[in-house]
Amino acid sequence: MALLEVESLTKQFGPVLALDDVSLAIESGEFVTLLGPSGCGKTTFLRIVAGLEKATRGKIYLDGRCINDLPPNYHEMGLVVQNYALFPHMTVFENVAYGLRIRRLGEAEIRKRVEKALEMVRLPGFEQRYPHQLSGGQQQRCALARAIVIRPRVLLLDEALGALDKNLREEMQVELKQLQQELGVTTIHVTHDQEEALGMSDRIVLLNRGRVEQFGAPAELYENPQTEFVANFIGDANIFDARVLGAGPRGTVTARSEEGLTLTVALEDDRIRGRGRILVVVRPERVFIEENRPSHETNVFPGTIEAVVYHGNSAKIILHAACRRRLLVHEPSLGGRSRKERQRGQSVWVTWPPEAAQVIRA
């Protein structure tokens, strides 16, 4: 049995359907991220699980026990929000101790737990400081210590790293993941940052308009998206709307894109039969640029480079292929330039192997 289960969770705010029949099972010790665009229902889901919001329909089970009608303090959740919500008039020690005092623990036990929590988040010696005397990263650690000191069954993080600058955010991602593994606490993390979700999560719930588009391991969502929305939202993608023409050589099928490109796609199963419509997804890092026409014939198209965007360790190359189809290519950077010098207006050839394509039934 999963530690946390939600069944047909639905939330309506007047005419707005924030969550639409969401069902999930989260195992003990998992780090699960709720990912999706603004307004997709991520925070609403978290607030319902925390007991801060009532579901319109559906059930929430913690270790097999329905907690829908229990007050928040009986949900056994620790919550960290984006603005940290620290009490400005309380010291770090009192902020962290607050939840323990509400639970009426003895002073000796409170001091022991607070000191341990501050040690875990690398804030020993900061007990008598006030929130305004802390940096953004230190405030985040203080809020995290306040959440874990109560020993929650589930740790809820609502954009908990969103207020940090890029370098500190990446540093805290590593620290937070290490702390979660050390504690073994089941964690649900809300973010709209795809890289953060891919790097930290055991599994990702991708939400769109209140519904689950896909729930699985990061590699599964990236390598095997089940819908066009997933393919578009997780990383960059070249997506072709195509119709199957028939079987090709060596376990492939050929398809004609709506722009008129003939695509060759390798298949590991027999999901595609007949001449149905499919979506062919090719990730930019699987597309290769050649200055001379490749010797093979499959997935080879002439193109013209439209733009080169330098990203430090890589370059994003935008080009127009045959039939004016726009393509995106990612190339690694070496010595401050992409693998080869690319120039706007340069005529090139683009190609990718048949196995690079992912197929979605349209």
Instruction: Let me know the number of strands.
Output: 21
Radius of gyration: 25 Å
Q: What is the helix tally? A: 8
Strand order of the largest sheet: 6-7-8-3-9-10
Helical amount: 10-25%
Give the DSSP E fraction (strand runs of 2 or more residues).
35-45%
- Along the chain, the helix and strand elements come as EEEHEEEHHHEHEHEEHHEEEEEEEEEEE
- Structural class determined from secondary elements: alpha+beta
Distance between the termini: 34 Å
Shape from CA axes? elongated
Write down the overall mean pLDDT: 90
Largest sheet: 6 strands, mixed
Poorly predicted runs of 5 or more residues: none
What oligomeric arrangement do these chains adopt? Answer: single chain
TL;DR of this structure?
Helix content is 23%, strand content 36%.
Explain the layout of strands and helices.
Layout: E1 4-13, E2 16-26, E3 31-35, H1 42-50, E4 57-62, E5 65-66, E6 77-81, H2 92-102, H3 107-120, H4 136-148, E7 154-158, H5 166-183, E8 186-191, H6 194-200, E9 203-208, E10 211-216, H7 218-223, H8 228-233, E11 238-247, E12 252-257, E13 262-266, E14 277-282, E15 288-290, E16 300-310, E17 314-321, E18 326-334, E19 337-338, E20 347-351, E21 357-361
Parallel strand pairs: 3-8, 3-9, 6-7, 7-8
Antiparallel strand pairs: 1-2, 1-4, 4-5, 9-10, 11-12, 11-14, 12-13, 14-21, 15-20, 16-17, 16-20, 17-18, 18-19
